[in-house]
Amino acid sequence: MTFEEKLQEYAKVAIKIGVRLRKGQKLQISCPIECVEFGRVLAKQGYDAGASDVIMDFHDEVSNLIRYENAPDSAFETYPNYNVVKSNELLDEDVAFIAIAATNPELLKSVDVKRISTWNKVSSTAMSRRRNALMKNENKWLVVTAPTKVIAKKIFPNATDDEAVKLQWDAIFKAVRVDNGDGVANWEQHIQNLKKYVNFLNDNKFKTLHYTTKDGATDLTIELPKEHIWAGGGDTTTKDEYFCANLPTEEVYTMPHKNKVNGIVKNSKPFNYNGNLIDGFTLTFKDGKIVDFTADTGYDVLKEMLTMDDGASYLGEVALVPNDSPISNSNLTYFNTLFDENASCHLAFGKAYPTNLINGSSMTDKQLEEKGANMSLIHEDFMIGSPDLDILGTTYDGKEIQIFKNGNFTF
Amino acid sequence: MTFEEKLQEYAKVAIKIGVRLRKGQKLQISCPIECVEFGRVLAKQGYDAGASDVIMDFHDEVSNLIRYENAPDSAFETYPNYNVVKSNELLDEDVAFIAIAATNPELLKSVDVKRISTWNKVSSTAMSRRRNALMKNENKWLVVTAPTKVIAKKIFPNATDDEAVKLQWDAIFKAVRVDNGDGVANWEQHIQNLKKYVNFLNDNKFKTLHYTTKDGATDLTIELPKEHIWAGGGDTTTKDEYFCANLPTEEVYTMPHKNKVNGIVKNSKPFNYNGNLIDGFTLTFKDGKIVDFTADTGYDVLKEMLTMDDGASYLGEVALVPNDSPISNSNLTYFNTLFDENASCHLAFGKAYPTNLINGSSMTDKQLEEKGANMSLIHEDFMIGSPDLDILGTTYDGKEIQIFKNGNFTF
């Protein structure tokens, strides 16, 4: 297949598997300016699939950096109302959302962390309705990526700019299963495989997951709410439409009980938090809360994030990804959560997906919390999977089942 | 001066002379993605001048073309409310607006003109408040340009892509007077020069202007409203702040009486109407209205534009630009109204600037119309100046004064 054929196939998978666009549905594409060529291909495929309109929203991270470096403090203290109005109108119109995520992980490393955390909090608060709606699957949404020179060079530091971008495209095409034959058919098959893991985990009704690594750096016990649901390989909206929110996706995931996580965990891949890299970190949990933490890189940023609100220092997601997933087998670090989380077991700081509880999408926040779901302005995945990770599950019946051995599913 | 120095100076002139940004004022930059580097420099200069925030709004004309070519008809029949909300909030906040105008003049040449005119009408109608506010100088606004490969190659067809862009930058730097010394000081001087023409024209209280060319292609008489005002070299907002809405600007302009234009006029440079080129056209006026027209290129587009609303086939502006202006002396056609209108006497289809009548900014539409001001959803300049254009003025006192001879001011 030529580059152009793979690019078209990638966009087709995004439209047909990712947001599974309905004829007559509107599509919004949030696109870094550097990824415009992929954005245009997505738009064209959207129209080919019957989009009633495609809204292109471009942003430029360098302009964002200029703002962080030069605007007065006051600029970060209020969020434009018109952005909220737009977001609400698009939610009301049942628009399908595609975001091309491609942030330079070191973009903001020289920026005052207080300024970043103020803006993150202000914008997250203003955009609560959107976050809640998407985490309840009220609308179809999708995160994909495309190369940028900066990221490509970080992944492939010894290649020239152009070669690095080409290599990143190759890695993406492989990870999103469009390098070989019919991408949509490949995905239908892959989704079936993920559903097998989902069914196994749901059938066994696990109460606790005990994570250990041979070096002792990780020794963590996570209790799951009684009514938890494992999901993976796509979701169903509250309007009963299938979609798949991440391309690629290799994970099966559920929610932990917010107050029932204990022990210590060490990350295994760098965590890109909105343009800041956090790495070499350990988290110590007591009754769900992070009571101590260390970090070789990005300690201050991590500290700001964990104190953004009460729920930021509790967990909202538990996800299992075998260590021999295609992305993991590439042996690359992508500095992009979308890829790195799909190469590695991960957890998430912050808000839990209501969809990971039986009837969760129709519960109030209070009801969700009573069942053990964490609430927060943030939801940030971080990677903990490694070739020596074991996970022992104990079911609500008291049966012990080895779920992971040496970084992979045992079944 | 290095390229970088000229670029910074250009941005500084835009901020300090163009929108004359007030400390604490917010700035919006409307930027084609291809012009992002200039957009970033503008943003940085905006912050240096004390901007309270800079809103970057990017757009991509190729995405726009994809939409025109692929979206269903219904997409062009309604305008998103959230765009109107944003526009209104920015007007209310007294934001200063900079638009980088760089449209490929042939972008839409293969698109159905009905579709374009529907969208132009729908969007212009929705954005009426913004157009009216800016044409009354309620807010400070500025149009500038920057090169794009497509336009650069159209201006310099024999150069390579990179050379053409470089040549276009050189032409822009020269036209905006930043290629030589202190750009802001150059502009202060230039504005004084334009004010001399403005004063001469206002002092003489002209009743009619009679345009003729030696070949007879143009023979047009335009009557001016009794209370007309000539303007040029910058304006003053209704809040009494000076700004200069175009960089470059070489024109002095007023409004014609909408019902008192008679004769024929031929254009002298191609007219880029939102991505369509109209050229080789003649217009025949009777009592202000275009009653007949021809065009070698873009006849259908011109026809759609003239029938968009009642006022589209009447004139809203009369502008005088000497044929030996710096832009004109470059002997280039820029395919960009911002430049070409400042190389040539021009007229505008559509709405008149209320500021071109005594107390016009505080009049209702009805009052403006009674004084002779045209109303329309459009305001589109087209070029008629040439080296053999003569303009004879007759004052309200009946005195005849030759204003232009062979394309230049006689005084």
Fold topology:
Two copies of one chain form a homodimer.
Chain A: H1 3-18, E1 26-32, H2 36-48, E2 53-59, H3 61-70, H4 81-92, E3 96-100, H5 113-126, H6 128-135, E4 141-144, H7 149-155, H8 161-175, H9 183-204, E5 206-213, E6 219-223, E7 231-232, E8 235-236, E9 242-243, E10 252-254, E11 261-266, E12 271-273, E13 276-286, E14 289-297, H10 299-306, E15 315-320, H11 326-329, H12 337-340, E16 346-350, H13 365-370, E17 379-383, E18 389-395, E19 400-405, E20 408-409
Helix pairs in contact in A: 1-2, 1-9, 7-8
How does this structure look, described?
2 copies of one chain form a homodimer. Chain A has 411 residues and is α+β, with helices and mostly antiparallel strands. In chain A, 34% of the residues lie in helices and 26% in strands. In chain A, strands 5, 6, 11, 12, 13, 14, 18, 19 and 20 form a 9-stranded antiparallel sheet that branches. A 5-stranded antiparallel sheet of chain A has the order 7-10-15-16-17, with helices on one face. In chain A, helix 7 (149-155) crosses helix 8. The radius of gyration of chain A is 20 Å and the shape is globular. Chain A starts with a helix and ends with a strand. The mean pLDDT of chain A is 96. Chains A and B meet through helix 2, strand 2, helix 3 and helix 4 of A and helix 2, strand 2, helix 3 and helix 4 of B.
